Target: Long-chain-fatty-acid--CoA ligase
Amino acid sequence: MEAYTIKVEESRPATGDRPSAGPVYRCIYAKDGLLDPPSGIESPWEFFSGSVKRYPQNQMLGRREVSDGQVGQYVWQTYEEVYNKAIKIGSAMRGRGVNPGDRCGIYGINCPEWVTAMEACISQGICYVPLYDTLGANAVEFIINHAEISTVFVQENKIQSMLVCLPRCVAHLKTIISFGKVADAQKQEAEQVGVSCFSWEDFLSSVNSNCKLPQVRKDDICTIMYTSGTTGDPKGVILTNRVVVTQVINTEQLILETDNVVTEEDTYFSFLPLAHIFDQIIENYCIYKGASIGYWQGDVRCLIEDIQQLKPTLFCGVPRVYDRIYTGVKQKISAGGLLSRKLFQIAYEHKLSNLKRGVRQDMASPFFDRLVFNKIKQVLGGRVRMMLSGAAPLPKHVEEFLRVTSCSVLIQGYGLTESCAGCFTSIANVYSMVGTVGIPVMTIETRLESVPDMGYDALSPTPRGEICLRGQTLFSGYHKRPDLTDEVFIDGWFHTGDIGELQPDGAMKIIDRKKNIFKLSQGEYIAVENIEIAYSQCPLITSIWVYGNSFESFLVGVAVPEKQALENWAAANHLTGNFVELCKHPKSRKYILEELNNTGRQLQLRGFEMLKAIHLEPIPFDMERDLITPTFKLKRPQLLKYYKDRIDELYQEAKEKKA
Model:
């Protein structure tokens, strides 16, 4: 098997309290040294201004305009138009006393104003601080005060929530700029506590002349990205211009090394949060290439409609999104006739066989792509040729299915805010990397460190351990939290908290999370994320949270059923009621519990990893109830708090049945 990494440093034995660590690796594309940022590019501003010079009339930022309550086609601003607005916005901020190095917040869903405000900040050397659209008022208040934000750009319908926390933010916050309009009453309320409030157009026109752009340097702070986290206050991840620029160039080089190319002709569909580093890097890269970026409306019910209207060529998603596409397509196939199902199976197996032999995606089965898989391609508008997945590991069966059926290159990666997005990436057309997050990117070296308490040995024949990173695209530290920085940076290595397994070809597979482990009362260790990944392969559910603790001998869970599947089963078994009522029905709970455990047995879960009771939740886990992060990761303490009474009931039910 071809190796895609090279060893650059030997392994380290255990000494005293320090565990052993495996060899240090980097990818073959960086065999002569890690990628450095190019000379002449001091900040991401040069990416934007360069594209303005090369492609001034190219469509840059687009949204669907609403007229008389009807959503129309995409309306675009050119690179030149966005540039002129960014210069004016930056000059207006400087005119109000915001200086290079100061912090400016951006709060709202993805839209042209978000990126324009970001570019305005970068042009003036102002550090921009994204505020998650779904973190809620308390976290927004915390970040404004912690980062000492003086100016914030706010989505129009978020102004009211800003005003609620405003009295507790006035020590630093002096100016609010709406992405759209602002009501007179809102202006007056802000002015009562000494804060000026502007509409977007008023702020644009508030400057008489553009100020000179300051000298910005690579090591200046570009952004402080607050991670939502699963516990405690958000942590401010400091990313310099050097790190952001290098990551964008790294993205370009990796795409070129794998025989792909992005040009000014491409269109990217933006719906993953811009307040998250993954989408920011992709959009910066698109801007660097002069490509077009079209934004969704912000309503998940209109997501597919927006995609089909835009017809993008580039698409980024998280596993939850791809899993929904997978489930929807599989349901349509199952509902088809015998002949169409048979044709699909023949086409699938033929193309999969070619992919496994190393044939390029676009050459693996052009005939079946046109005859069978083109219908699936149309789900994403018909033009997508490159899909990226990040934020969490993509289940192997979903990745394989989409590689075969989407008529598109699918690249899975792994990254953190602390690594400025991707630190590992799979290689397009290398099938052996399916089910892994690929190899280190060209800016990163990696090693595994043993975790003896969990039984992971980085020096074993199949190396497993905590993924540690070193290189050019790591954060500088947590803002005002040197204690937390010291916890994760040890001997120059950033400890991710994720457990990886090194594959023979050098690819990394994420298998566990260091902290999401606990003992049951009988002493058995539970790696809960592994169990959830296994149960998630049951087609009857869309998501699941598994719970256990050291005082109980078994596990229980909360699952969100797949609505159509449950309703179909209910109809076949003469159960009546709406979806909420079906979720409460004892027969529904018994059926789904049995099917979940059947899935667990098929995937070789051990007896103590099987669920003994389940609650069916009709409402998907959401950010409004603070149950998941903006990247759809479960917030376990919050889930326990929300479902505490139900969890107690599940344990009582299971014990009564056992008795």
Q: What stands out?
A: The domain at 45-216 is CATH 3.40.50.980 (Rossmann fold). The longest strand covers residues 493-502.
